[in-house]
């Protein structure tokens, strides 16, 4: 990761020399997002959060709604990893709102997966199962393969739900979530 971090930092510095401000900010946004992701993967959540917040600020400056949705998703993951569940839920919901506006099924599914994880941590296991089943359905319908990180979050969420509800109730909640209409899924996602 050291070489990649150096390349991203160098690319960001070179971008600062560009005359075209929008292009410069777009390159900076890409670099800081990747720097945040590196920090996240290396377990440095506070550092990752700082990069993702900068990424979100840049996205807002250049009116990049898709980038903002992804930055909010990443900020939600950081907050989840730091056990700041209300922050995580708020960030996932904001990202979900943007993803729905853009009709980006993968980001929608990721935000719903994040909300399912929050629910599993805060004890709202049935709703967590519903949301997880809905996220599974969206991932499947869009033909997107889950990343290693998404698999980890999903597996940990299922384990928490299963430990609290048991196997049968977990499967029922997941199946119900898979069968819900999009409007019903979003209604569950907005609940506190």
User: What structural class should be given to the helix and strand makeup?
Assistant: mainly alpha
Tally the helices: 10
The whole-angstrom Rg is 17 Å
Annotation, overall tally of beta strands? 0
- Distance between the ends: 38 Å
Q: Major sheet: size, sense and barrel closure? A: none
Task: Please give a structural write-up.
This protein has 192 residues and is mainly α. 85% of the residues lie in helices and 0% in strands. The protein contains 10 helices and no strands. The protein has helices at residues 2-15, 21-41, 45-61, 65-81, 85-102, 105-122, 125-142, 148-165, 167-179, 182-190. Helix 4 packs antiparallel against helix 5 and helix 7 (125-142) packs across helix 9. It is elongated and about 60 Å long. The model has no long low-confidence stretch (mean pLDDT 92).
Write the layout of secondary structure elements.
Blueprint: H1 2-15, H2 21-41, H3 45-61, H4 65-81, H5 85-102, H6 105-122, H7 125-142, H8 148-165, H9 167-179, H10 182-190
Helix pairs in contact: 1-2, 2-3, 2-4, 3-4, 4-5, 4-6, 5-6, 6-7, 6-8, 7-8, 7-9, 7-10, 8-9
